[in-house]
Amino acid sequence: MRLVASVLVILSFLALPLRAQNLIRDADIEHALSQLARPILQSAGLNPNQVKILLIDSRIPNAFVVNNRAIFIHTGMITKLKSAEALQSVIAHESAHIANGHITRRMSQIGTRNSITGLGIALAAAATASGVKGGALVAVGVASSAQRSFLSHSRAEESSADQSAVRYLAAAGISTRGAIEVHDIFKGQDVLSEARQDPYARSHPFTRDRVRAMEAYVSAYGGDTPYSAKSNYWFERAKGKLWGFQQVPKSTLRRAKNVPLADVKLMMQAVAHHRRAQTSKATGVMQSLLKSRPKDPYYHELLGQILLEGRQYGAAVNAYARAAKLAPNNSLILSGYGRALLAAGQPKSALKVLENARTRDFRDPSALLDLGSAYAQTGQPAMASLATAERYALNGRFKDAELHAKRAAGRLPTGSGPWQRAQDVLSAAQRLNK
After folding, report:
1. Which end of the chain has the least Cβ crowding within 10 Å, N or C?
2. Final residue of a domain: which of 201, 229, 257?
3. Residue 52: in which H helix or E strand, if any?
């Protein structure tokens, strides 16, 4: 699991001061969330291959959308919820905002689009709207009134999203009772002052009328659907990995004892040993785990990460290569493979893999960090500057992005694809930095 905070890739997973919306990019967790989201997105008429569920590193429970290509969920929301169906109801609600066209105004307001600069602007705006200090939205140039309402929807939109969400869940054969669980968790937030409310309650106000309406929707759409063992597995797997990397190892080992899923239990134990720098012990547990799930690319990737951060670079390359063979189209596994190749002193091979990863998904700042290093090590300074500029833009640091975009644009062939990418960053940075 990789926490991307500003320009620093945190390999030790130690807490750092929150500067912006910090993305957590993890192939295993994102795959688990995609399994939970797929039937819902299909019921909503959305393409599961085009709408990703992305994680924000924050223990404050929240979820939001800023464009039609991603649903952002705080890690605190996942750890707070008790069931897969509750998390799926949150995903269904945010999917409804996309499917019902509720985010069109917001997208036009800050100029978001499917690009690195668009996502960087959107995340900077969402950071401020969620209460992160630092005035990120001031740089975006959005009025203070828009800051307060950036993640909010009208009562009519919230009611529409509630009803649509329950309909999506029912159509997908998912218990709608999870929607009531979410409401119960945030019950009473509406009587608190705005400063004391959870961001999710501020942007999704749970009035008594809304709760009663939701209960009626659930009753009408059949709230007695049996719970799904498959959904529970993916929920527990995502939650277990998050717990392992975000809690102290002692707590993880204690919690793992009560996990009924054998592979998730072993995974949590391996992560706990890894975070104690007990590489041999962690890899031993992973080898036992992989005997039962030899074709699971995400567990091979975790083994690769453990070996890489344990400085066993050759073995890490082999583990990542196995993961990449099992999941050749997964950009996050590819970026990890490229990182291992770089560490093993193979920059040319790393560059090829990292370029493939970036083509498949540009929303991984750590992959852009490694890509910049690979370009630099293979004698391509202009492309290294471009990768650096895009990384800063994705993190909302547009002053730094402008500096490196200028360097890249001045060295790249005019009119080329990379030159156009540099111009995109430069144009957005200059507009925002004014």
Report:
1. C
2. 229
3. strand 52-56
